[in-house]
TrEMBL record, chain A:
It is found in: Cytoplasm. Residues 23-57 are annotated as: Disordered. It comes from Oncorhynchus tshawytscha (Chinook salmon). GO terms for cellular component: cytoplasm. GO terms for biological process: lipid catabolic process. Alpha1 catalytic subunit of the cytosolic type I platelet-activating factor (PAF) acetylhydrolase (PAF-AH (I)) heterotetrameric enzyme that catalyzes the hydrolyze of the acetyl group at the sn-2 position of PAF and its analogs and modulates the action of PAF. The activity and substrate specificity of PAF-AH (I) are affected by its subunit composition. Residues 34-43 have a biased composition (Basic and acidic residues). This is Platelet-activating factor acetylhydrolase IB subunit alpha1. Keywords: Acetylation, Cytoplasm, Hydrolase, Lipid degradation, Lipid metabolism, Phosphoprotein. GO terms for molecular function: 1-alkyl-2-acetylglycerophosphocholine esterase activity; platelet-activating factor acetyltransferase activity. CDD domains: PAF_acetylesterase_like (cd01820). Signal peptide: none annotated.
Automatic annotation (TrEMBL), chain B:
Keywords: Cytoplasm, Hydrolase, Lipid degradation, Lipid metabolism. It is found in: Cytoplasm. Belongs to the 'GDSL' lipolytic enzyme family. Platelet-activating factor acetylhydrolase IB beta/gamma subunits subfamily. It is an enzyme of class 3 (hydrolase). Its EC number is 3.1.1.47. Gene3D superfamilies: SGNH hydrolase (3.40.50.1110). One of its GO terms (molecular function) is platelet-activating factor acetyltransferase activity. It catalyses: a 1-O-alkyl-2-acetyl-sn-glycero-3-phosphocholine + H2O = a 1-O-alkyl-sn-glycero-3-phosphocholine + acetate + H(+); 1-O-hexadecyl-2-acetyl-sn-glycero-3-phosphate + H2O = 1-O-hexadecyl-sn-glycero-3-phosphate + acetate + H(+); 1-O-hexadecyl-2-acetyl-sn-glycero-3-phosphoethanolamine + H2O = 1-O-hexadecyl-sn-glycero-3-phosphoethanolamine + acetate + H(+); 1-O-hexadecyl-2-acetyl-sn-glycero-3-phosphocholine + H2O = 1-O-hexadecyl-sn-glycero-3-phosphocholine + acetate + H(+). This is Platelet-activating factor acetylhydrolase IB subunit alpha2.
């Protein structure tokens, strides 16, 4: 039975119906030197008006069990009696991290909270953070890891979405530092999504370079081998990390975080 | 219902690569390759409920020692599992037990259709692997609060309970007891997103599953007790 494309798209997006706010997005930028970035384009890309990846959007419950909203509500109420120094927020790569030993070993001791939701795109994280998940906490560092699931957006739009989140965090938590983690490569062999993710990282790195309160950390320890392949021992489905993959990512992340926290303490 | 052309949940279908990184086919290809090298006694096939199990310690502790292979792919429906089994994932292997866990992602199908799809998988397994015993795991409850998907999964299990015993060499195992509390909620301690199991959640389902697997692999319970002495 042939499934129509929109339904297949829905299936890959975890069954979510995405509401797009605002006008249709601007046409593709010509590839070129990201150093000559256009400030106007940056503003447009991180404003909700023209970039769906930067428009706060909740997930509509298509499947019928309300799980996304349940998780959001949990995060909001959980945060009422916690005082985390570090908040991890993002998609399944953040969420799954919480399930493995590495979380207890490395991040619980840093008093970290985990607000990851599988499948989340930038606009979903933006909505969650705008609707209570930052209301009751004052972490010193926010670790943001999102973007790989933004399948209908360009690299520029995804960067705009990430930068909108960075700005929101600055507005709500003026003293917090935002550490954006680079989006990892995916797929067993080279493919357009690897290129897109690499471009997102490049654009975000440029965009945060002038900000004192944010930076991009590349956490890819070298998952892509010399033949261009990624191993299932690191990314079990060529997207999500195995416990071994997490160890490789998190050891340097942990060291970097400790350094940031120490700097925050000095200020 | 099973084998009926009218049941879309029993029609084999590959997952199309829309996202652009071809991960589903890469995973399938890896499983086909594993069939060439491995001699599993136990084969697990299904969706993310199967796939994620291999990432927790419990797989190494309890299932690896049984020489188990894990052919789970996140998001799979009965249609996708049927396609994979018909396209190489059963080649050259002769497991004594095949554990099937799939159906919760069949969002376009009714409970009866989903059960029919699972039945079709069990039938395919018993015909392709005459020596295997098939264990079908019941679908778990999902969602923090009561919702239509919980009712649907209960209905699927109900159909399976009555249909599967009519197939030879096949049994149904309900591993969902205890996940829904008296206030009707599911806890994130068991399902971190009200669908996927935590390490604690897997430990809870592993107990009845491992008991059944050992029973099948080692013959009767008396033989099992004798061999453990």
């Amino acid at each position: 039975m042939a499934l129509s494309t929109p339904r297949l798209l829905v299936r890959f997006l975890g069954g979510r119906n995405l509401l797009y706010g605002g006008a249709p997005f601007p046409s593709e930028q010509t590839p070129g030197d990201s150093k000559t970035r256009n400030e106007e384009t940056d503003k447009v890309m991180s404003s909700g008006d023209s970039n769906p990846a930067a428009t706060p959007t909740p997930c509509v419950d298509i499947q019928g069990d309300g799980r996304w909203m349940s998780l959001h509500n949990h995060f909001v109420s959980n945060s009422k009696d916690k005082e985390p120094d570090v908040l991890f927020v993002g998609d399944s790569l953040v969420q799954l991290l919480h399930q493995f030993e590495v979380w207890r070993e490395l991040f619980s001791p840093l008093h970290a909270l985990n607000f990851g939701v599988g499948g989340d795109e930038t606009q979903h994280v933006l909505w969650r953070l705008s609707n209570g998940e930052l209301a009751h906490i004052s972490p010193k560092v926010v670790v943001l890891w999102v973007g790989t699931h933004n399948h209908s957006h360009t690299a520029e739009q995804i960067c705009g979405g990430i930068m909108a989140i960075v700005q929101l965090i600055k507005d709500k938590l003026p003293k917090a530092y935002t550490l954006v983690l680079g989006v990892l490569p995916r797929g067993k062999m080279p493919n357009p999504l690897r290129e897109r993710n690499a471009q997102v990282n490049k654009l975000v790195k440029d965009a945060v370079s002038s900000l004192p309160h944010a930076s991009l950390l590349n956490v890819d320890p070298g998952f892509v081998h010399s033949d261009g392949s990624i191993s299932h021992q690191d990314l079990y489905d060529f997207l999500h990390l195995t416990p071994q993959g997490y160890q490789a990512v998190c050891q340097p992340l942990h060291a970097h975080l400790k350094g940031l926290l120490e700097k925050q303490a000095e200020n | 219902m099973s084998g009926d052309e009218m049941n879309p949940a029993a029609v084999a279908q590959a997952v199309e690569d829309i996202q652009g990184d071809d991960r589903w086919m890469s995973q399938h290809t890896r499983f086909v390759q594993e069939c060439k090298d491995a001699e599993p006694e136990v084969l697990f096939i299904g969706d993310s409920m199967v796939q994620l199990m291999q990432q927790y310690e419990i797989w190494r502790e309890l299932f690896s020692p049984l020489h188990a292979l894990n052919f789970g792919i996140g998001g799979d429906t009965t249609c996708n599992v049927l396609w994979r089994l018909q396209n190489g994932e059963l080649d050259n292997i002769g497991p004594k037990v095949t554990v099937v866990w799939v159906g919760t992602n069949n969002h376009e199908h009714s409970a009866e259709q989903v059960a029919g799809g699972i039945l079709a998988i069990a039938q395919l397994l018993t015909s392709r692997l005459p020596k295997t015993k098939v264990v079908v795991l019941g679908l778990l409850a999902r969602g923090e609060w009561p919702n239509p998907l919980r009712e649907k999964n209960v209905a699927v299990n109900s159909f399976l309970r009555s249909w599967l015993p009519r197939l030879g060499h096949t049994q149904f195992l309900d591993v969902g007891a205890g996940f829904v509390h008296s206030d009707e909620t599911i806890s994130t301690r068991d399902m971190f997103d009200f669908l996927h199991l935590t390490a604690a959640g897997y430990r809870a389902i592993a107990k009845p599953l491992i008991d059944l697997l050992l029973q099948i692999l080692e013959g009767t319970p008396e033989e099992k007790r004798a061999s453990l002495v």
